[in-house]
Amino acid sequence: MRNKLIIFDLDGTLVDTIEGIGFSMNKVLQNHGFPVHTIEAYRRFVGNGLRSLAKTVLPQNHRDDETIDLCYKEMLEVYSQFYSRGISLYPGIEDMLDRLTGEGYAIGINTNKDQRITEYIVKEFLGKWKFVKVIGDEGGYPKKPNPEAALAIAAEGGFKPYESVYVGDSEVDYKTAQAAGMKPVSVLWGFRSREELIKLNPKGVIETPDEIFNKINP
């Protein structure tokens, strides 16, 4: 068996969830008479959890804790109904996970998405594969880039940080990998720009899922 763990971010890395997120958050904003945003704009807004998203999309003069908490609570309710809107695995993800698990690599998921909705998505779209551990927001650990969840996944599988690779599509994932002492791999098909990720992690970017094998087995 391969002595290596691959931890994946979820949104923008394994699954394209941006339509459901944007649609749901816009419904919440509309309910309160606030301006909405384009789905494309949400690619820049996501990455730090739904409460942070609610704060980011609200008009600046309505970013008080009471309004943020209210919109966050409503977002959880609405998104739990529409999380699967437009959702899909990115091209090549299925083959990559098949090969990783077939070759004996351990895999895990660490996301800032709500734990309950994360589990819905993993069960519905990623249930074919066995993950060492799946940790989302409110799963008992601090949000990324705090490394505690990533380290807990490694510990669950019996891996040291240096035996682990952390794969994500944002600066949050890169910082998490660094803080955890894991090798960072940044994917270019997710929610951040190519320029941003190449500048951040010039030697660790991949354009297609199959390229991950070049990074975990240099």
Automatic annotation (TrEMBL):
One of the Pfam families matching this protein, by short name: HAD_2
Tell me which Gene3D superfamilies the record gives: HAD superfamily/HAD-like, Putative phosphatase, domain 2
An MF annotation (GO) of this entry: phosphoglycolate phosphatase activity
Q: Give the source's domain of life in one word.
A: Bacteria
Instruction: Give one GO biological process term.
Output: DNA repair
What are the record keywords, sorted? Hydrolase
User: GO terms for CC?
Assistant: cytosol
Q: Which InterPro entries match?
A: HAD-like_hydrolase_sf, HAD-like_sf, HAD-SF_hydro_IA, HAD_2, HAD_sf, PGP-like_dom2
Enumerate the NCBIfam families for this protein: HAD-SF-IA-v1 (TIGR01549)
This protein is called HAD-IA family hydrolase
Q: Which organism is it from?
A: Defluviitalea raffinosedens
